[in-house]
Specification:
Elements: H1 8-23, E1 42-46, H2 55-65, E2 73-77, H3 79-89, H4 92-99, H5 104-118, E3 121-123, E4 128-130, E5 144-146, E6 148-152, E7 157-158, H6 161-164, E8 174-178, E9 183-185, H7 190-205, H8 214-217, H9 220-233, E10 242-244, E11 252-254, H10 267-270
Parallel strand pairs: 1-2, 1-3, 5-10
Antiparallel strand pairs: 3-9, 4-11, 6-7, 6-8
């Protein structure tokens, strides 16, 4: 049975909520008391099998390890060490949900929620290349910092931030949402907590032979729904909890092409398929 949150009307309202959120002028915004503490200066990444880390992905990862000389810790997890972290930091329930993630991209999605909720820090995808010269300001407070995106259904392509972030920018075929890369926040952040709870429940409810859609169950759809849920329940307080990184592409870029993108390791080719 399709849930109300899967309906076209719900998706439209969620997109419109996010559009209004990201197009507002930055101005001077209050910070929720929970978020006043700095974010831990830990960069966290995931690749499901470190014994077979592709050289081109390893090159991307190295662009983040250079921050170790500037006071950051870098931690790279795989399926085994991520599972051990979840077992020790959260619960057996979360470990079982992680084990139900049928694709490495889904494992990465779920693990980042677990890690940032438990420890806080900077989660960045392993295929992102750091091009920024200063990332320290991202740790100054504990608000959730994440990247807004916009997809154009009519053209089947992404809309450039310089276009969709303008206050007057709108097209009925545009879908506004938040990426789950990066995820930068203090531990215990309410949006991350909600997103993890939602992902865990969906994985638990899925039948034994059912493979939930990755983007909605654990990926950007999940984090976007969580922001919408909390934002519409807390009378605008969501703005004291999150920061839309409108210029994330000046700090990091997703590298194309990479060797793994042409095979089953690419979630777009393996969505709702056994890996």
């Amino acid at each position: 049975m399709r849930q109300e949150s899967d309906s076209p009307e719900h998706h439209r309202r969620r997109s419109e909520f996010i559009r209004e959120l990201v197009q507002r002028p930055l101005g001077r915004r209050s910070i929720n008391n929970h978020c006043r503490q700095p974010t831990p200066r830990t960069i966290v990444q995931f690749w499901h099998d470190l014994g077979q880390l592709p050289p081109d992905v390893e090159e991307c990862v190295r662009s983040w390890t250079v921050w170790e000389t500037s006071g950051f810790e870098h931690r790279l997890f795989d399926e085994r060490t991520a599972g051990a972290f979840i077992s020790s930091s959260l619960s057996a329930r979360h470990k079982r949900a992680f084990e139900r993630c049928y694709h490495p991209a889904m494992q990465a999605d779920y693990f980042r929620l677990c890690y940032v909720l438990a420890e806080g820090g900077f989660y960045v995808d392993a295929d992102d290349v750091c091009i920024g010269t200063d990332i320290g300001w991202l740790a100054e407070d504990g608000r959730l910092k994440l990247q807004p995106l916009c997809y154009d259904i009519a053209t089947g392509g992404m809309v450039k931030p310089a276009v969709f972030l303008r206050a007057d920018a709108y097209d009925p075929s545009w879908i506004f949402y938040f990426n789950n890369n990066p995820l930068i926040a203090s531990p215990g952040h309410p949006v991350i907590e909600h997103a993890l709870s939602q992902a865990t429940r969906l994985l638990e409810l899925a039948g034994e032979d059912e493979l939930p859609e990755i983007q909605m169950a654990t990926g950007p759809g999940n984090i976007s729904k969580s922001i919408f849920d909390l934002g519409t329940r807390t009378s605008g307080d969501i703005e004291s909890n999150i920061v839309a990184l409108k210029d994330w592409d000046s700090l990091a870029v997703s590298k194309w092409p990479l060797s793994y993108r042409d095979d089953a390791r690419n979630w777009r080719l393996s969505n709702q398929k056994r890996f």
